[in-house]
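User: I'm new to structure prediction. If I give you an amino acid sequence, what do you actually give back? Let's try with this one:
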Amino acid sequence: MIQADDGPLAIASLPVAGLGDPRVRQHLLAWRDQWRATPRKADYAMQVLSAVLSWAVDRGTLAVNVLIGHKGLYASDRADQIWSDEEIARFVKAAPSPEVGYIVRLACLTGLRRGDLVRLEWDHVGDIAIVIEPNKSRRRRPGKAVTIPLLDETLELLAEIKAQQDSRGRPWSSARWRSRACRRPGPAPCCRRPEDGRGPSTAPSIR
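Assistant: Good question. You get back a string of structure tokens that encode the predicted 3D arrangement of the chain. For your 207 residues, that looks like this:
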């Protein structure tokens, strides 16, 4: 039985055979849309329902999952969240270690994702550019590298980083970076997320 606990629409009375009819999709979407004001909740309800339908397909109860390919309501758009020079300075000052400050500054200069920043090696850094195959591309299109021109500010930052490597002498994992970046004493120095460093990159990738 599937039923909405706190909404006017319920789908518990739908017959099992009806759940395999493509025409029921619009009714299931209407059931979801009663939580449109809380899109994450609405999307989670559909994820659970879709999982149930997929289970029924695997067991031979249904011929098709009518929710395959449906689009969620929730969308995160932080493209307008840009680090200012003042915010970067405040973050670096409040960072628990120099390395945390470095990675935010490097994000703003290169536009690399967090996962790519923490696995960035000196072998990726050339005389005039950083050349790296992003994690996202490695999974979807192996061999697709990006080339990021080295600005004077980037070269200066890389020189700082080289002069003060991680004292433990081992690479950072994405989880380790997140735990260190979020462990700030006192009030947050700004409202930005470390990932927002990708937005203001002044060195666009050449693909």
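You can read the tokens as a compact description of the fold. Here is one thing that stands out. Confidence is low (pLDDT under 50) at residues 184-191, 198-207.
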